[in-house]
Amino acid sequence: MKMKKTIQLKDSLSLSESIVIIPHKNPDGDAMGSTLALYNYLTQLKKKAYVITPNDYPSFLKWLPDNDKVVIFENNTQLAKKLIAEADHIFTLDFNHLGRCGELKPLLEANNKATFVMIDHHQQPDDYAKFTYSDPAMCSTCEMVYHFIEQMGDLKLVNKAIATCLYTGIMTDTGSFRYRSTTSTTHRVIANLIDAGAENTQIHEGIYDTNTLSKLQLKGVALKNLRLFPEYRTAYIKLSQKELNDHNFKKGDTEGFVNIGLSIDNIVFAVIFIENENEGIIKMSFRSKGDFSVNQFARNHFEGGGHDNAAGGKSDLTLSETVEKFMSILPQYKTTLLNS
Question: In whole angstroms, what is the distance from residue 238 CA to residue 222 CA?
């Protein structure tokens, strides 16, 4: 965000009486880390701020500071509606078109008096916000929130709670700092967050070392279902609703499974297909190495998008039909995949 816009937003926020902060549906570490960090920052400015998530999120994120302040729309609909209707500023974090926030979309669109602020690192942002801080080159929205606070001249307000939330989001969205979007600036930000109180070992354990036996057994099923296609440098995993049910599936249990295929030597494109009978869709996650854009692949074929090396999509077909469609498309990308 340019300095002139930052000054204008700072002046606008000085008059604010009620601020709502929204992450995308099915929020992940970056979404919850960024929203809770911003919440803590704004409350330090003596602002009334509220985090409203469209739906629930994994238990391994619920240890984050100020998690108890989160209003989950699907569990507390009337309060969420009231807060959104009364808000004079609405921050949308870690998404850039309102369709990503599910049933909150019409409520946000109905508030004509609110000033919208977008902070996001995904490609091709919509233009709904008066203040837009968009940078697809940034590794995470959490790093962007750090730079936003910096532009506001308030790094002195980055306390242990903010540092913990931001570290969590940066860590999870960079694959523990191994993705190529991780820059030297990212590492300098991380160093500053550690100096501000983020305890890296405890954060890592809180995210990655809270497995249940059923989750690990589900991972075993995913490994059994893994299929390789060396001629396309591609791997996929599929999980049916029955396999999820048989292993007491909880939200977040399949987090990271898509990366299993990408860890195999000479594989540059990995996909996971997950059946979701409640929504009547197949959810898909795409990961890649090198120059193969899964963002474009997802946009072209599966109503999705995201980043060049990490994206999501969906299908209204059955699980087997979706896999069949995917395999029919794959030959179109053979040359690109072999050269990635």
Answer: 7
Question: Token match 């995308």: residue?
Answer: 24
Pair of tokens at residue 102: 């599910």
Average pLDDT of every residue of the chain: 96
Confidence of residue 5 (pLDDT cuts 50, 70, 90): confident
pTM: 0.91
Helices marked H in the chain: 3-14, 29-44, 77-86, 105-110, 141-151, 160-173, 184-195, 200-208, 213-225, 241-246, 258-262, 294-301, 319-329, 334-338
CA torsion, ordered 272, 275, 280, 283, to nearest 10 deg: -20
Angle between helices 184-195 and 160-173 (to 10 degrees): 150
Buried-state track 54-82, b at ≥16 Cβ within 10 A, e below 16: bbbbbebbeebbbeeebbbbeeeeeebee
- Please report, for residues 50, 51, 258, 288, 337, the alpha-carbon distance to residue 331 in angstroms, rounded to integers and kept in the order given: 48, 44, 21, 16, 10
In angstroms, what CA-CA distances link 16 with 43, 90, 314?
12, 10, 38
- 102, 145 contact by CB (below 8 A): no
Q: What is the pLDDT of residues 53-72, one digit of tens each?
A: 999 999 999 999 999 999 99
Reduced DSSP (H G I as helix, E B as strand, rest coil) percent helix, strand, coil of the chain, to 5 = 45, 15, 35
Q: Closest Cα partner for 40 from 138, 154, 129?
A: 154
Tokens of 221: 């099923």
- What are the pLDDT digits (tens) for 29-61? 999 999 999 999 999 999 999 999 999 999 999
Q: Which residues is 193 bridged to in the sheet?
A: none
Taking CA atoms, 285 is separated from 104, 180, 259, 294, in Å, by: 23, 18, 10, 9
Three-class SS state of 26: coil
3-state secondary structure at position 53? strand
Separation between Cα atoms, residue 65 and residue 15, nearest integer Å: 27
